[in-house]
UniProtKB/TrEMBL annotation:
Protein name per its UniProtKB record: 9345_t:CDS:1
Species for this entry: Cetraspora pellucida
Amino acid sequence: TKLYAALKHINKLIRQIQANTQTPNNTLIQTYNEDIDYINNKTEIQINHIIPKDLISTNKKALIIQLKVQQKTIHRARKLENNLTHQSTINKYISKRYNDFNNNTTHMINSILKRHTDLVLLHNICKADEVITEPE
């Protein structure tokens, strides 16, 4: 889903910012901002673009804290989305079972009582004058 993709990107962004010890350059900031744009497009959250002074060691911790707050928000939204999906699947199967019980009662009772007919295989048939072992 979109939230999962955004969560992966924000996790990657946080890891990259934490691991980066070199001085920030324009290409590095541009790649970070591209990830932020991707996250903003996939979610309804608006994360501010990174500027060079955000990556100075004194401001870096505040930036990481801000990104982690957004990460937690995306994670909660994703959990809610997954719970709603599971709930709708459960409701779909409950309504299917209810409809089968109302419309196809005999089949449902046979299923509940485990009345399944087994397939009968006859390997040979004995007649009065012959034994048939091969189908015609």
